[in-house]
Amino acid sequence: GAVVSQHPSWVICKSGTSVKIECRSLDFQATTMFWYRQFPKQSLMLMATSNEGSKATYEQGVEKDKFLINHASLTLSTLTVTSAHPEDSSFYICSARVQQGSGYTFGSGTRLTVV
Amino acid sequence: AQTVTQSQPEMSVQEAETVTLSCTYDTSESDYYLFWYKQPPSRQMILVIRQEAYKQQNATENRFSVNFQKAAKSFSLKISDSQLGDAAMYFCAYSSGGSNYKLTFGKGTLLTVNP
């Protein structure tokens, strides 16, 4: 089946530095990738939608300059958290649409801790 | 905007018994998809079952089945013969059948299975 590989699984970084999270579709072409943020014991909150070769669409309240999304190829989408602060600590998950409306596959998530 | 409501923050069930998780949604669209996802402690999102709105027949996947009431905008999940491995957070989700494919999640229901 369609698999999305997400790396790293966890990362600790110092406040003020940037962190990049990668999501790769291994056996299919992901024209659309979704990035979610999940706080402990809460639901997934959509941050942005990225389409290959075009600018990402951010949800209301998400800082575009802080959460940079690049979807330069059909198999790779990246989320860069710039100038990270402790409040950016969270669990980040990517997801790709496999078929129209009927299929979504998720990465295994990245736990980000900013110290 | 579409909304998904899960009114049961927590549920518990005895092993081998049956449990039903509730979900309601609000939409003005006629073409859409509904999903139940499972998130175990590993936090990997796992598709449990999906339902196309245009299908009247309720979807089933082994021990998992749904009761899809389109007029009432209700989409409940029934787990039969509950197993210890069913313990997880369960999220109900909605996706439009149009050009906006993003998933909207409910807040989740934490299911505990008692031996």
The number of distinct β-strands of chain A equals 11
Kindly estimate the percentage of residues of chain B that lie in beta strands according to DSSP.
over 45%
Computed Rg of chain A: 13 Å
- Principal-axis shape of chain B equals globular
Low-confidence parts of chain B: none
Please bin the fraction of helical residues of chain A.
Answer: under 10%
Into which percent range does the helicity of residues of chain B fall?
under 10%
Content-based structural category of chain B: mainly beta
Largest sheet of chain A: 7 strands, mixed
How much of the sequence lies in strands of chain A comes to: over 45%
Total E-strand runs of chain B:
12
Instruction: State the order of secondary-structure elements of chain A, H for helix, E for strand.
Output: EEEEEEEEEEE
Question: Greatest interface and its residue counts?
Answer: A-B, 20 and 23 residues
In whole angstroms, how far apart are the ends of chain B? 41 Å
Task: Encode the helix/strand succession of chain B as letters.
Answer: EEEEEEEEEEEE
Instruction: Supply the number of helical segments of chain A.
Output: 0
Class from secondary-structure proportions of chain A = mainly beta
Low-pLDDT regions of chain A: none
Which oligomerization state do the chains in this entry correspond to? Answer: heterodimer
| Cα end-to-end separation of chain A | 37 Å
What is the count of DSSP helices of chain B, taking H or I runs of 4+ residues?
0
How would you describe this structure in keywords?
heterodimer; A: 115 residues; mainly beta; seven-stranded mixed beta sheet; four-stranded antiparallel beta sheet; 0% helix; globular; B: 115 residues; six-stranded mixed beta sheet; 53% strand
